[in-house]
């Protein structure tokens, strides 16, 4: 599956309407962002069950601010609408594959219920 552009208008619906969503916050002037883009796109073709979204932080400054983006690229992973990974920096292909494996295996339901029990 190809990557899709996310905007303030479709961000929440995309996150909550899909099981697993990876979001790449980037900008055209960012060298590491441009270097990471082919890795992100290639990964999207390997995992059609995962939604790959890209947020142009220049075009979507309010969305980037709301997501508290401090440096780019920043990669976020959401599962069942919950943020489970948030890290700045471009990942090499093997690390991105490992992240996707971990996200797929992560039981967000039990993690959420155990957090509420601890509160």
From TrEMBL:
GO MF annotation list: protein-disulfide reductase activity
CDD domains, per database record: TRX_family
Active-site residues, record numbering mapped to chain: 30, 33
Give the UniProt keywords, A-Z.
Disulfide bond, Electron transport, Redox-active center, Transport
Pfam families in the record: Thioredoxin
Return the annotated site residues (Deprotonates C-terminal active site Cys).
Answer: 24
Q: In this UniProt entry, which cysteines form S-S bonds?
A: 30-33
Which InterPro entries does its entry note?
Thioredoxin (IPR005746), Thioredoxin-like_sf (IPR036249), Thioredoxin_CS (IPR017937), Thioredoxin_domain (IPR013766)
Q: Decide whether keyword Signal is in the record.
A: no
Site note Contributes to redox potential value, residues:
31-32
Keyword Transport among UniProt keywords: yes
All copies of the Thioredoxin domain together span 1-105
Question: What superkingdom does the record give?
Answer: Bacteria
A GO cellular component annotated for this chain's UniProt record is: cytosol
- What Gene3D superfamilies has UniProt attached to this entry? Glutaredoxin
PANTHER family per UniProt: GEO12009P1, THIOREDOXIN 2
What family is reported? Belongs to the thioredoxin family.
- What this chain does, per the record? Participates in various redox reactions through the reversible oxidation of its active center dithiol to a disulfide and catalyzes dithiol-disulfide exchange reactions.
Name under which the protein is recorded: Thioredoxin
Protein species of origin: Mycolicibacterium aichiense
């Amino acid at each position: 599956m190809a990557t899709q552009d996310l905007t303030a208008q479709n961000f929440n619906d995309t996150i909550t309407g899909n099981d697993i969503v990876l979001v790449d916050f980037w900008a055209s002037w960012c060298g590491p962002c441009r270097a990471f883009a082919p890795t992100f796109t290639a990964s999207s073709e390997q995992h059609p069950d995962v939604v790959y979204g890209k947020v142009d932080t220049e075009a979507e400054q309010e969305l980037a601010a709301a997501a508290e983006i401090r440096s780019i690229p920043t990669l976020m992973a959401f599962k069942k609408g919950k943020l489970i990974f948030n890290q700045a920096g471009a990942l090499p292909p093997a690390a991105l594959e490992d992240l996707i494996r971990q996200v797929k295996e992560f039981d967000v339901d039990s993690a959420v219920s155990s957090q509420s029990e601890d509160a």
